[in-house]
Fold:
Amino acid sequence: MATDRGDDVVGETSEGLQVELFHPDTERKPGDTNIRKWGFDVHPQVFPIACGLIAVFIALTLLFRTQAASFFDAIQTTISATAGWFYILAVNAFIVVILYFALSKYGNVRIGGVEAEKEFGDFSWVAMLFSAGMGIGLMFFSVAEPVFHFGSVSPFFGGVESGTVRASNTAMATTFFHWGIHPWAIYALVGLGLAFFSFNRGLPLTFRSIFWPLLGDRIYGWPGHVIDVLSVIATLFGLSTSLGIGVQQVNAGLNVLSSQFLPATVPQSVWVQIALIGLITGVATLSVAAGLDGGVRRLSEVNLYLMVLFLALMLVLGPTLYLLGGFVSNLGTYVDVLPALAFWTESRSGTTWQSDWTIFYWGWWISWSPFVGMFIARISKGRTVREFVLGVLLLPSMFSFLWMSVFGGSALFVELETAGTLVDSVNANVATAMFELFSFFPLTALLSGLGVLLVVTFFVTSSDSGSLVVDHLTSGGKHDVPVVQRIFWAVTEGAVAAVLLLGGGLDALQTASITAGLPFAALLLLMCYTVYLGLDREHEILESDEFAEWMERIEEQEQVILAADDDDVLASLRDSGDSTSVDD
Structure:
């Protein structure tokens, strides 16, 4: 058909435009030096170094289990005391930079080039954002965090008495702060940088590519290897933190359900959690084998449907009007205190509250950013910078606010009615908080069962998409890698999560995130500059005479093809003898 030939011609011309005007002058290709053996396709430096460092960490933690907990606690205390201010400043800088990219002249730049089309529809795109972004965390902290801040108000809100209505407002505002614009700004920055340099510049889909404006071909040397190894370590520890937290909540849910409906109770213990990690990781490998479109996309969409059902049930069964009013009030309080809260540090207050909460979260989000950012980049081809940034910043943040208001608001309603009921439960065991809440409302078993199912599905999608991301990093930026390799990383993520649980539980998980996030925060600050250089060069080319000539050439070819299509139609009609149609 002439149309098919025409599409091919125009497509080749558009691709030629992208290569000729936008791609850097280099002969290197993604994965061109890879080692291909035993079903693996891996980078010769990044893969073995990352595996070696992970193996050393696992071995030392298992050999010195008694000392590990104290060691992790000392590291967290030291980093929070000396570098907490750096985390606070860096994350605020990320927000300013990413909003500048979206709202300035660079907002019209299209990821993948001027002719790029969207690979995934809007619904699938948003569903995958939620599943990769913070699904497990929303389940784990949506009840526990507001209740904790209600019983122990942040030092920022000096003078607010714990256990009061005012404390419930500040508790939700603090929770919004940790789960809103700030984490998604980190993800948006990383995702934009990776997507731009991969799809617009034709460079490997790895972190090293973001530094092309500064390093040039040296990204393929040791500077690039170090950047990608840091990315792998940060991703694995960030993922393992989420998986470890998730499996603790699954264990808590099974404990509650089994104690109520089964003759034997499933105990809450590290060994049960390790067994659950093994089982759920096994399920994740099946999704891994199905690939991005067949596995992650479909499971992410199922996740989103389950989340909406779960949210709707809690909204209907809970104090509906109180929750809806609270959502509006909480949002107002958050907006009111955000400028001061975003830059507040407790260095002069003599407390350690910020170390356990804000600094942990910022480290967690930063260490998660290679994983979430690369995954978002992988699914965002064809979107403009403005559409990408505003979509990533606003849609998940607003959903998180609603989610926290419904589940956290229900818990605060119970606390205000029956003081101390949930605060004591949270202080005793954070993982059980959500299931303790359900006991105060109808359909307790249904809510608890849905809660466990959602955590499991989030575990699977996080492990699956995380394996895909680490694969990109350790295969030199190749988009398609062997299934065996993705399964290897899914198992490794589960193993690291299990080791962290053995080495110190939740404290070890928090320390791993904060420690891995610190050097990566410095890389992200440098990345702000390299992404600016890339977008500025892109805008300059788009405004050039050479680009205009290319576009005129494409338009002329499209007109020639349309004319050829018309001639083919007329000839076909004449051959069929339909003179009326020919005359028309």
Notes: The beta strands are 35-37, 40-42. The longest strand covers residues 35-37.
